[in-house]
Design goal:
about 220 residues, alpha/beta, globular, TIM Barrel
Length: about 220
C-alpha cells in the first residue's frame, strides 16, 4: 500500500501571506502543495492564475499539485506547466478531447491528474487509466472551500482501487473536499492515499499545522 500523503489546499491559507504559509506547510510535514485554480465559469468562484503560482514557486521545493477547475482547459495547460506545476489535474468535462489534453501534459513532462466531480462516472476515464498518474475524487461540489464531506463518493474510490489492483496500475487516488479528522480514516480505508485538506490543516488545534498534518496521516 502506498504511504499516505497530505496535500494542503492553500485556498484556506492567509492570502496576504501566501509565501510564508507555503513555508509553514513544508516545515509542518506537507508532502505537496494543493493549488485550486478556479475561473468563475467552470465553477462559481475565482482564485489564482499562473503569475501567482510562478511567484510562489520560489518558496518551496515541494511539488505543486495544481487542480485546474477551468473550461476550456486545454489552452491553459502550458501556462500552468511553465508557472511551476508538477501535477496538472483537469476535469474530463472541461476539455473537448481528453486524450489530447493528457498527451499535452505528458509532453510537458508533468504528471497527469484527472478529477471526477461527485456526479462524474469512472467510465469517463476508464480507457485512459494507464496514462494517468493521479485521480482526484471530489467529495464536495468544486468551487468553494469549507463544504461538507459527501460520503457517497467513497464507493467510487473503492471501485477505482479494485480496478487499480486488478490491472496492476500505479496511479495515486486523491480525495478533496471537507476532509477532517473524522472522515480521513474512511477515505484511507476506501483506498485514497493522498488527502487534500484546507480548513482542517489551517484552522484546527489553534492552527498547529504539523499537529494537524500528523493527525490526518495517522487516521
Amino acid at each position: 500500500m502506498k504511504k499516505i500523503q497530505i496535500s494542503p489546499s492553500i485556498l484556506s491559507a492567509d492570502f496576504s501571506q501566501l509565501g510564508n504559509e507555503i513555508k509553514r506547510l513544508e516545515q509542518g510535514g506537507a508532502d505537496m502543495i494543493h493549488v485550486d485554480v478556479m475561473d468563475g465559469h467552470y465553477v462559481p468562484n475565482l482564485t489564482i492564475g499562473p503569475p501567482v503560482i510562478k511567484a510562489l514557486r520560489q518558496n518551496t521545493k515541494l511539488p505543486f499539485d495544481v487542480h485546474l477547475m477551468i473550461s476550456p482547459v486545454h489552452k491553459y495547460i502550458k501556462d500552468y506547466a511553465d508557472a511551476g506545476a508538477n501535477i496538472i489535474t483537469i476535469h474530463p468535462e472541461a476539455t473537448n478531447n481528453l486524450k489530447d489534453s493528457i498527451d499535452l501534459i505528458k509532453k510537458l513532462n508533468k504528471k497527469v491528474g484527472i478529477s471526477l466531480n461527485p456526479e462524474s462516472k469512472i467510465d469517463l476515464i476508464k480507457s485512459f487509466l494507464d496514462k494517468i498518474d493521479l485521480i482526484l475524487i471530489m467529495s464536495v461540489n468544486p468551487g468553494f472551500g469549507g463544504q461538507k464531506f459527501m460520503p457517497e463518493v467513497l464507493d467510487k474510490i473503492k471501485e477505482l482501487k479494485k480496478i487499480k489492483d486488478k490491472k496492476k496500475l500505479e496511479f495515486d487516488i486523491e480525495i478533496d473536499g471537507g476532509i477532517n479528522f473524522d472522515n480521513s480514516k474512511l477515505a484511507i480505508e476506501a483506498g485514497a492515499n493522498i488527502l487534500v485538506s484546507g480548513t482542517t490543516i489551517f484552522k484546527k488545534n489553534d492552527g498547529n499545522i504539523k499537529k494537524n498534518i500528523d493527525l490526518l496521516k495517522s487516521s
